[in-house]
Write a structure and sequence with these properties.
- The complex is a heterodimer of chains A (226) and B (119).
- Chain A is built from eight helices and eight strands; from the N terminus they run βαβαβαβαββααβαβα.
- Chain A is α/β, with parallel strands linked by helices and 226 residues long.
- Chain A has one domain (9-224): 3-Layer(aba) Sandwich (Rossmann fold).
- Chain A has a seven-stranded parallel sheet with strand order 4-3-5-2-6-7-8, with helices on both faces.
- The longest helix of chain A has 20 residues, at 206-225.
- The radius of gyration of chain A is 18 Å and the shape is globular.
- Chain A starts with a strand and ends with a helix.
- The mean pLDDT of chain A is 95.
- With 119 residues, chain B is of the alpha+beta class.
- Chain B is 24% helix and 30% strand.
- Chain B is built from two helices and six strands; from the N terminus they run αβαβββββ.
- Chain B has helices at residues 6-23, 44-54, and strands at residues 29-37, 64-70, 73-76, 82-84, 103-107, 111-118.
- In chain B, 34% of the residues are buried.
- Classes of the chains: A alpha/beta (226), B alpha+beta (119).
- The interface between A and B is large, with 34 and 39 residues.
């Protein structure tokens, strides 16, 4: 008779993805490229924020954008229309971008030509938080119309990101959005999270965000030269 | 909540399980124990359904998935006390010993294949 055996595993469900993500980070470091994973719900302003950021930082860095969408090329066309370089990933139904998709996208980019890559993840506050893409920085956007209570529903996304960008602050007077309530909740679940208030439309706050981002990129490059 | 969220994760669970089961010369996988932090969105019933679909034709077909939920806890930066943490409730957001709000998550984000039962 065959015995029943208990096998202890203790392996992260996403271990495979995490290993691929680490390999991507190594490859980026070898080519002195800094990658930022931008996440939010649909319509929070990921593409608009990337374009606004790109316009300010393109004097200093060569930028490429990896656009993740379930099935369209709308966003990458928008980036290119605004003078940027873009690679489109179609996730074919997957509601997030993972390391294997980013690896495939990066293989089409000549990394020597770029300093910075933005990933525009699929609009979703759940799955993208689970999958490491190999990025050096994780940033989430929350737009004012979504409300200050999103953190109560999607705590993991607020926990894993390095920075939070509150977008569409130009329309804050039309909504019951309490910035201080949100800030207090963020301080409980991710005290290190850097918070910016911006409007990608009017440009308000974009310089502060770009200055901070630029510092992160320069620190990263300095650490590679050590 | 996004109902397809569990599908890619179930696929990942299956590949970890099959890898360990085959390494241990299993004929069949009977049970899979998953450890999931309370901060993770994970619907248990849908995961079993996805599992039954994805594992068809493999040695893991028919295995039961058991979930161990790990409660959220924090460690206080002021007095190092470890306490049950719920940022949604003001009374459970601060350290019950010294009252400090300055703490760091210790558990609650786990996402692990803990163990499997094989034949």
């Amino acid at each position: 008779m065959t015995d029943i055996k208990l096998i202890k595993i203790k392996e992260s469900i996403t271990a495979d993805n995490d290993r691929s993500a680490d390999l991507i980070r190594n490859e980026l470091a070898n080519n002195k490229v800094f990658m930022i994973n931008i996440m939010s719900s649909p319509g929070a302003g990921k593409t608009s924020l990337i374009i606004a950021t790109m316009k300010i930082l393109q004097n200093k860095y060569h930028i490429n954008v990896i656009e993740g969408d379930i099935d369209s090329t709308v966003d990458s066309e928008k980036i290119i229309r605004n003078g940027g370089d873009a690679v489109q990933i179609q996730t074919g139904g997957d509601c997030h971008v993972d390391a294997s998709m980013i690896k495939a996208a990066i293989e089409t980019i000549d990394l020597k030509d770029y300093d910075v890559i933005f990933i525009e993840n699929v609009g979703n506050l759940v799955c993208p938080a689970e999958f490491d893409t190999g990025a050096n920085l994780k940033v989430m956007i929350l737009s004012v119309p979504e409300g200050d209570d999103k953190i109560l529903k999607y705590p993991l996304m607020f926990n894993v990101c390095d920075a939070l960008i509150i977008n569409k602050i130009d329309c804050i007077e039309f909504f019951d959005f309490d910035f201080n309530v949100l800030k207090n909740r963020v301080s409980l679940i991710n005290p290190k999270m850097k918070i910016f208030q911006v409007s990608a439309k009017t440009g308000e706050g974009i310089i502060e965000w770009c200055d901070w981002l630029s510092k992160q990129i320069d620190c990263y490059n300095k650490s590679l030269n050590l | 909540m996004c109902p397809i969220h569990e599908l890619p994760l179930t696929q990942k669970i299956l590949s970890v399980v099959l890898q360990y089961a085959e390494f241990n010369d299993a004929e069949k996988v009977l049970e899979v124990c998953i450890e999931i932090g309370e901060l993770r969105d994970f619907v248990e019933s849908i995961t079993q359904k996805y599992w039954d679909y994805l594992s068809k034709g493999t040695i893991a077909e028919g295995a039961k998935i058991k979930f161990y939920r790990v409660p959220v806890s924090s460690i206080c930066h002021s007095c190092s006390n470890i306490f049950s943490f719920d940022f949604r409730k003001p009374e459970k957001s601060s350290c019950p010993v010294c009252g400090s709000f300055d703490s760091e998550l210790l558990t609650g984000t786990e996402l692990e294949v803990k163990e499997i039962l094989i034949l």
